[in-house]
Amino acid sequence: MELALYDPEAGYYARAAQRSGRAGDFFTSVDVGPVFGELLERQLAEMAGLLAPGPGQRASVLHPDSFDLVEAAAGNGRLAADILDAARRRDPAFYDSIRLHLVDASPAARAAQEGVLGAALERLASSSADLPGSFHGVLLANELLDALPVHQVVMRQNGLREVYVEAAHGGLRTIEGPPSTPDLAAYLDRLGAALEPGWRVEINLRALAWIRAAACRLTRGFIIVIDYGHEARELYSVTHARGTLTTFARHMMAGPERPDDAPAWLEDPGDRDITAHVDFTSVRMAAEAEGLTTIGLLDQTYFLLGLGAAALELSDLKKRLAVKTLLMPGGLGSTHKVLILGKDVGAPALAGCSYRVRLT
Fold first, then answer.
1. Is the full-model pTM beyond 0.85?
2. For 4-55, how does the pLDDT look when each residue is reduced to its tens digit (9 = 90+)?
3. What backbone torsions phi and psi does residue 318 show, to the nearest 5 degrees?
4. Which CATH architecture has domain 16-148+204-254+275-353?
5. What is the DSSP string of 188-213?
6. Is residue 244 very low, low, confident or very high in pLDDT (cuts 50, 70, 90)?
7. pLDDT, tens only, 132-158
């Protein structure tokens, strides 16, 4: 998965500036138009206000005048551009305070950011493959964790086995062997997940490492993770006993694999997306162990309704359809969850959590 997605020369994400949209392989909230960024800007502006120096309070290390907006898996910067365009129109003071940091593993995507940002390029402070060493503000990760390389394990009568990939007869195949690290069994034990023989699941150790690093680099502020996934009790249950490792190509999804079939994600490595559902329980636990506070975990539908999606001016048909796509149950609205974490911010009643905090 690491090679197929991120190899500098052959990796799926490394070779292109954009993979989603009508001409791509899958569809994201950003692809419905600028309304997603417009709604996110409202939440970010509220968070910036909570972090800003209070009346009569001088700017300091904990309350600087500037606001770091860090977007991980930023791609070519389309979402950041939508957010900044909305801020410039709605709240110029907030716009002027933003120091934008775009993070993406793809050199092609980073090279395209200048053209996509347009006038908002003036707010760009850094563009890199890595998170800033420290930042004060908000880290936004929209559909990042599902694309981090995972381990796949399967429970057999004699215990836990890991699924590996090897070359065979000019192609690739999967084989089973002993787990590559005791961290895999420890991960499941920590959750109290009892797998039945034959159950196949994914474990994303990289997601835990990422959230720990992000928590350490955030001096004060918030982290917003938007992705598809479940709480652990749902993810590691009979409902998903075939696993969730899936591939997308030309808007066609294949997987999880059926028993005894060659998994679809082995086909055309480097030319298709590979993804697995996020375990939000473990991500939240790892963040809290680093001193972060969980403020909310809810469906994207309710998050966007809290930000006023239903009250938007929808005289334009295209915008009406975009909002419907973002909110529709069974689509992006319910498959995508929003995890909001805070550091040294208390327990604020955020607009994004004001409608209903509900997971489906």
1. yes
2. 899 888 888 877 656 555 555 556 778 888 999 999 999 999 999 999 876 6
3. -60, -40
4. 3-Layer(aba) Sandwich (3.40)
5. HHHHT--PPTT-EEEE-HHHHHHHHH
6. very high
7. 999 999 999 999 999 999 999 999 999
Contact assessment for residue 10 and residue 272, using Cβ atoms and an 8 Å cutoff: no
The dihedrals phi and psi of 267, each to the nearest 5 degrees, come to: -80, 145
Tell me whether the omega of the peptide bond preceding residue 256 falls within 30 degrees of 0, making it cis. yes
Which residue, among 206, 205, 218, has the nearest Cα to 340 in the 3D structure? Answer: 218
Instruction: Please identify which residue in the block is written with the tokens 């905090």.
Output: 357
| pLDDT confidence bin for 350, thresholds 50/70/90 | very high
- DSSP 3-state percent helix, strand, coil across the chain (nearest 5): 40, 25, 35
Phi and psi angles of residue 34, each rounded to the nearest 5 degrees, phi first: -75, -5
Over residues 316-330, the pLDDT tens digits come to 677 778 888 888 877
d(CA 175, CA 33): 42
Q: At what angle do helices 280-289 and 183-191 cross, to 10 degrees?
A: 100
Q: What is the pLDDT of residue 253?
A: 61
* Assigned token pair, 199: 């159950």
Q: Helix or strand or coil: residue 78?
A: helix
More confident residue, 247 or 218: 218
Element (H, E) at 224: strand 218-230
CB neighbours of 60 closer than 8 A, spacing ≥ 6?
Answer: 53
Q: What are the distances in angstroms from CA 200 to CA 66, 203, 219, 257, 349?
A: 46, 10, 38, 10, 39
- The span from the CA of 180 to the CA of 73, in Å, is 27
CA end-to-end span of the chain: 29
pLDDT at 24: 56
Query: In DSSP terms, which residues pair with 342 in a beta bridge?
Result: 222, 293
Which residues make Cβ contacts (< 8 Å) with residue 157, sequence separation at least 6?
A: 197
The band of 359, judged by pLDDT with boundaries at 50, 70 and 90, is confident
